[in-house]
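Thread: Modeling a multi-component assembly for a lab meeting

Hi all, long-time lurker, first post. My supervisor asked me to bring a structural picture of a complex we are working on to next week's group meeting, and I have zero experience with this. I have the sequence lines for every component (412 residues in total). Could someone generate the structure of the whole assembly? Inputs are pasted exactly as I received them:
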Amino acid sequence: MAYRETEKMRQRKALAREKIINCTYECVAEGGFRSARITRIAGLAEVATGTIYRHFESREDLFAEVFQLATQKEVDKVAEALNTSGDAAARLEAALRQFAGRALRGPVMAWSLLAEPVDPKVEEERLAYRKAYASLFEKTIREGITEGCFPDQNAQQSSTCLVGAIAESLVGPLSLTQPNRENEDNDPLVDAIIRFCMQGLTGTRR
Amino acid sequence: MAYRETEKMRQRKALAREKIINCTYECVAEGGFRSARITRIAGLAEVATGTIYRHFESREDLFAEVFQLATQKEVDKVAEALNTSGDAAARLEAALRQFAGRALRGPVMAWSLLAEPVDPKVEEERLAYRKAYASLFEKTIREGITEGCFPDQNAQQSSTCLVGAIAESLVGPLSLTQPNRENEDNDPLVDAIIRFCMQGLTGTRR
DNA sequence: ACAAAGAATGAATAATGATTCACTACTTAT
DNA sequence: ATAAGTAGTGAATCATTATTCATTCTTTGT
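Re: Modeling a multi-component assembly
Sure thing. I ran the full set together rather than chain by chain. Output:
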């Protein structure tokens, strides 16, 4: 036996793999999954198209992995915001702000994760993604009901409404057509959304 | 001049055109625009694929027209509900119920109209569709503010949240995975959504 | 230096599906 | 009946891209 995979090679391969993932991420952030061509990704990563298939079973699989990666980042941020101190309402509000803020900073990625239909494998991941959000929100809503800061309600349904209201406001076609106002002050927009959401939960004007 | 289009022919053509539109509608209601193949549509309509191109410039154009048709139906229903008697809150609630009820009865079509990304021409139509809803809701919210049954708020933003909350709950990926409960009683679901939405608008528990 | 094994390459292939167009069939007016 | 014009046909074409695989290049152990 002349050649045996060595540590050095393992690392080099891992690096190439990572580079492909990063370049895919970049492509997706630019124009979504559907417009991310294998040739473009290969070009960015400075490898041949065939090489991508050495590291990933298929385009779908590559996308599913990139989706998971991107997703994890987002969900972690929201979970983090939910772990701050304060009552359930305050924590939820912080989380919604986190969600909205990140989506506004990367609208194409947000759209890809929330709404863009891609293929069954990615769709499966998206399901998990939405469920992760729903569960996080739902749990906090329940805590809020126990704490007494939210009235009794269908926590699961409410969390779905939350995600929907935010997603629609932030990545709906109306917001995407408007010129990409990079460093514009989006606080009033976020404030209006948050107000609607918190009122929807609490039934209390503030 | 030997042949000149006669009334009879005009009607026959119009009929064929209409049949194509109806069959396209059927395909879309089944699986959305993306999976509606020209061949399938032609098959259903009992014409050759080429015939479709005698009546429509392109697939995109055909879809845009079908979208418009479907859209008009939906918006009209909501507008109708908004024209009943009662205060703004009552009328809006009736409209939301109409919206939700129709979406539940035709979830794939609702998804196609609200969320499925297709192509630029259809996307343009969707924009008009969303604007139509937004304007209807927005107008009523404004009336409600004047009437005093809603507190002052960003009416446009609130209407977007309304659409989002409903869409997510009814046609979002989470709801689509659940078994298609044909004739199940969806009232509790709709009630929960409506409650969230009305609270979001009024900031009042009821 | 050599050979074995694996990795990378990218042109060729394959699959999908919209669209075209040369042709046939039908309608109409004379 | 005939000719001119229009509608309908559907197999062939074209366009787009993911994927393959025969070949070339690298790495490793002896």
